[in-house]
Amino acid sequence: MNTAAHPDGVRLQKVLAQAGVASRRAAEEMIAAGRVSVNGKVVREMGRRVNPETAVVHVDGARIQLREDLVYLALNKPRGILSAMSDDQGRPCVGDLVVERGLVEAEFEGRARNRLFHVGRLDADTEGLLLLTNDGDLGHRLMHPSYEVEKTYLAEVIGTPARDLGRRLREGIELEDGSASVDGFRVVDVMGGKSLVELVLHEGRKHIVRRLLDEVGHPVQRLVRTAIGEVKLGNQRPGKFRPLDQVEIGSLYTSVGL
To answer: Which residues in 120-176 belong to E strands, given as ranges?
Structure first.
């Protein structure tokens, strides 16, 4: 959106429509209903103009990202790929997938003026959801342990979990670097000496899921991260990227208090 051509700003309903929130008519109805705020204040007048580069806009309490230079991607990281944008030893990494797909130049038309980076890490043997962005403020908060953003994992483990395992994991397991616990645990399936379990936790220590399950006697054979907050992996294929929608972006902002 070229704000230079609109020195007084752009009409709020147009900004919302161009951000993909709703049609212009539906955006006007949202404004009239008091569902839209700009810089912390509810706006009801149709003539309000804003600068999309600087305005902080919320709809129904969720922040709407208006800047066109910011990119938000979900990657289904395959097994064997490092969570790094480059590797001095030439090992395959996330940065290679970005280059192979030509994402910034082809799909986002040069919008990523700032360099893309991955939010958090997955070890090479762990698959699943990894976020990439050039939004430094959001990325920093998502990685900071104080915001406790929940992450969900599916783990294939050896053995059949005892009935009280969920309680033990919620209460906390003592590891070499201190106690660790989960926010949620359930057994998804049991099949021939192995089990599929789901864990939800906000811990960010290295190999924390593998270490927890190993400590309770269920070594991990395969591990997949399926969600970060409200952003879900779904049926996204390994090695594929997709842009987050406004609802997902808004949920991430909400989870870290932006």
So the answer is: 127-133, 151-158, 173-175
Per-residue pLDDT of the chain (258 residues; tens, 9 = 90+): 554 444 578 899 998 988 888 899 999 999 999 999 999 999 998 889 999 888 999 999 888 988 888 889 999 999 999 998 888 898 999 988 888 776 554 444 444 445 888 998 899 999 999 999 999 889 999 988 888 899 999 999 999 999 999 999 999 999 999 999 999 999 999 998 999 999 999 987 889 999 999 999 999 999 999 999 999 998 999 999 999 998 899 999 999 888
- Active-site residue list: 123
Q: Please tell me what DSSP assigns to residue 236.
A: P
Q: Kindly tell me the sign of the dihedral angle through the C-alpha atoms of 76, 79, 80, 84.
A: positive
List % helix, strand, coil for the chain (3-state, nearest 5). Answer: 25, 30, 45
Cα separation, 223 vs 127, in Å, equals 6
